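Hello Y.,

Per our agreement to keep a running log of every chain we model this quarter, I'm adding this entry. I've kept the format consistent with earlier entries: sequence first, then predicted structure.
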Amino acid sequence: MPFSLTASNVATQAKIIGVLITIIWMLEIVDQLLLQHRLNRLGIVPRTQIGLRGILFAPLLHGTWNHLIANTLPFAVLGWFTLLHGVTEFTVATAVIWLVSGLGIWLFAAPNTIHIGASGIIFGYFGFLLSRSYFEQELFSAAVSVVIALLYGPLIWGVLPSRRRGISWQGHLFGFVGGIFTARYLPELRQLFELL
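Predicted structure for the entry above:
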């Protein structure tokens, strides 16, 4: 059922997205200005035991101001569209996408690399929003899917293998897969999260 667009709900959605973006920006300010990029060592290092911690931290960290700026607007827009169906579904989608994207990087990315950035979450929201209408067969979700396809359709090319330095296409791909997985199994995932 669609999340209603009352002033109260929009204010709640803005607070949630605002808090997440503020956390990411504050971490980057501290990392760049005080820690000389040392926080980036907390990223995902594929197939290493210490690299597992990066699954938790990587989406919160960014390598440069440009990296952070490039991720901020799509995170805000796609995150807000994900929030339209409610805070619970947003939380479930974010958690599953975060985990699937991180595990995909850890398992399949090149060794001796460090992966950071929120783009796996962004691609996950993208996959979730595009595929949700297929699984849900609901007009509101279909309308959201059309809007997302028009706004961010070219993003789909980011899931393809790339040799561009500094681009974690594995994070994009597995984030996207995590989003589709979440859309497909959303009722079951909601029940699981309610038990936790």
